Amino acid sequence: MSDVSQNGWTLIWDSSGLDRSPIPGTTRTIELRAGAVRVVLDYLCAEFHDRVEALDEGQRDDWGWAKPVPIPGSSIFSNHGSGTAVDLNATRHPWGERGTFGAAQVAAIEAILLELMGTVRWGGHYTGKADEMHFEINASESRVSEVATALGGSRGDVPHSRPGLLSLGSTGSQVAAVQARLNRDYPRYSRLEVDGYYGPSTEAVVREFQLRSGLSVDGVVGPETRLRLGL
Fold first, then answer.
1. pLDDT class for 156, splitting at 50, 70, 90?
2. 122, burial (CB in 10 Å: exposed 0-12, middle 13-18, buried 19+)
């Protein structure tokens, strides 16, 4: 019998190695693999709640880890068995149905997946039977840990809030950290005042940094830009 799920992560047979915490910004609790996986999927779930569709408070139809069982009709174990998959608002998005999200919702999902830099796969992209409720880790442990660090967490360290995206008008210590890092590492074109305000000058330097780093030039500090900045 295999000891890994479909995505290559080790199966979890009991509660060890799991974390049951509220999704940031909600009262919904989902049991998921602790550490970097939790950080990445917390970001996914919280952004889904904010930007795609509010997580149902009454339905209790958000599911994470489940005791390992093979995928129906297969000998391969479901990714839920390794605590690396989550189903969101499952009763609204039944297995096998397509088109359960509107166009704007799909665009928001696609944007969140891009922010997670290929570490999460959506069941709406399956070429066979669709599973639009379903999201799963789709990367190695080292890559997931790297992206979790860019999101503000690290392996074994699960933040219960998320940094979010920094853009024009953002304020606070995270903005100040970006400004200080740009000034330190890129002094040839960054002489920003470290004031914690994401104004036009900060946006212009971020755009320059993104251009020179081969990133998408949007002036927004998301996970990939954080990663390149070492934050």
1. very low
2. buried
Q: Residue 187, class by beta-carbon neighbours within 10 Å (0-12 exposed, 13-18 middle, 19+ buried)?
A: exposed
Question: Using alpha carbons only, what angle is made at residue 15 by residues 9 and 19, rounded to the nearest 5 degrees?
Answer: 75
User: Which percentage of the chain shows pLDDT scores above 70?
Assistant: 93
pLDDT of 96 > 60? The answer is: yes
**What are 30-86's pLDDT values in tens digits?**
999 999 999 999 989 988 998 899 997 766 889 999 999 888 778 899 999 999 999
Average pLDDT, rounded, for the chain:
87
**What is the 3-class SS of the chain, one letter each residue?**
CCCEECCCCECCCCCCCEEEEECCCCCCEEEEECCHHHHHHHHHHHHHHHHCCCCCCCCCCCECCCCCCECCCCCCECHHHHCCEEECCHHHCCCCCCCCCCHHHHHHHHHHHHHCCCCEEEHHHCCCCCCCCEEEECCCHHHHHHHHHHCCCECCECCCCCCCCECCCCECHHHHHHHHHHHHHCCCCCCCCCCCECCHHHHHHHHHHHHHHCCCCCCCECHHHHHHHCC
pLDDT of 1: 55
Using CA atoms, how far apart are residues 63 and 56, in angstroms rounded to an integer?
A: 12
As a whole number of angstroms, the distance between CA 226 and CA 208 comes to 14
Nearest 5°: phi and psi at 10?
-65, 135
